[in-house]
Structures are given as C-alpha cells and as structure tokens.
Amino acid sequence: MVKIFLDPGHGGNDTGAVGNGLLEKDITLFIALEINRLLQNEYEGVFVQLSRTKDETVSLDERTDRANQWGADVYVAIHVNAGGGTGYEDYIYNRLDDDSATARIRDAIHEEVVKATGFRDRGKKKANFHVLRETAMPAVLTENGFIDRKEDAEKLNDTQFLRTVARGHVNGIARALDLTKKSNLSLTRVTVDGTQVGAFAEKENVLRQVERYLGKAKYIVLERIGM
C-alpha cells in the first residue's frame, strides 16, 4: 500500500498566479484531479488524498497537517509559475542532499514531466517552502509552465495538454515508487488503413484518434487488447 498526498496549489480566496485570462488555482486543481484519476485507475495498492478537490481556501498548515496526520508516503504539490520565464522546474527542501530519497523521487518526476510535455527544462531546484519543510515525508513541488508567458499559457489553456502534464507526474511517481500496474488493465488498439497509430487505456484518447482520422482514412479498426 502506498499513500500519495496531492496538493493542488492555492484555491478559494487565493488565486495564485494570474495571466492571460488564466488562474493558477484552476490549473493546479485540474492537474491534481487527473493525477488522482490515473493513479487510482491504473495502479495497484495506491491510496490518494488531496488537499482540496474543489475551489476552496486551504491554509498551508492545513495542507501539511493533513498529509502528516494521514501518514502519507509522498507529498506532491502542483503549481504554475509566473515571472516571464518559460518551462518546467521543481523543488525539494533546501537542506536535503542530492542523493536523498526525496531527490530521487523528484528526479523521476522531473524527467517524466519534461519528457511528456516538451517543456523547457529549467532545472531541479531547492527552496525553504512551507510544504517542503513541514512535511514528514518526501515532498516535491512542481512548477508547470509560466502563466504570464503567452506560449506557456496557450498550452495551459488546453485541457489535453494539462492531461499530458498529469501523465508526466504519474509516470514519474510510478517509476519512483515502483508502483504495480493493475493486471486487468486493457488497451484499445487503433488501426488506421492497416497501420497501428496507438494503443490507449483512456476512452477519450481513443475517441480523439478516431476524430483525427475520421473522414480522412478508408477504414478505422478498434481492437481491445489485454496487458
């Protein structure tokens, strides 16, 4: 059994960063809910709690207290950056060594998010943030793009891209914690004019491929396959 605490930054009266018509609190909640859904659907023995599941105000003390009282094995805080830069970066507590257990978890998440999103890699960093300092378990804070940078904001305004951000987090968490895939997970293979274009666990991804090729291909074949 693995307990994962997800902390979508800000919420309620605290909007977080604002830019290009977007609010950080909305983006972080979407990503966290998607991470939760993927972890619960795809992996064995995973229990997830979130600091919030809706737009509500939750103090920093409440967030870390809940994680500590629950006995979480890992804490992941999801944020969006601001300040005119671009790309992805993440943080661990500044008193931790680069070969600590927390750093190893951060390394896996970092690599998988950058790989999944194509975000510019801004590096692995350290800070004295409350959620990194006051947690009794390994804690990582991710900064996913810049809300006040037009190029990043266009991506952050795309729900499919936010799902990709979530997928990167999930891949990193699963890799770092050596999570076990559910044995009954099935995929749908999509074949277009005799060529396989992919195999997907999520229904919406299958539909997206069908919509992409509908009207262009001679035939599209969907086939359920086990894993």
From TrEMBL:
GO terms for cellular component: outer membrane-bounded periplasmic space. One of its GO terms (molecular function) is N-acetylmuramoyl-L-alanine amidase activity. It comes from the Bacteria. Gene3D superfamilies: Zn-dependent exopeptidases. GO terms for biological process: peptidoglycan catabolic process. The keyword Transferase does not apply. Keywords: Hydrolase. InterPro entries: MurNAc-LAA_cat, N-acetylmuramoyl_amidase_3. Pfam families: Amidase_3 (PF01520). Signal peptide: none annotated. PANTHER family: N-ACETYLMURAMOYL-L-ALANINE AMIDASE, N-ACETYLMURAMOYL-L-ALANINE AMIDASE AMIC. This is N-acetylmuramoyl-L-alanine amidase. It comes from Geobacillus thermocatenulatus.
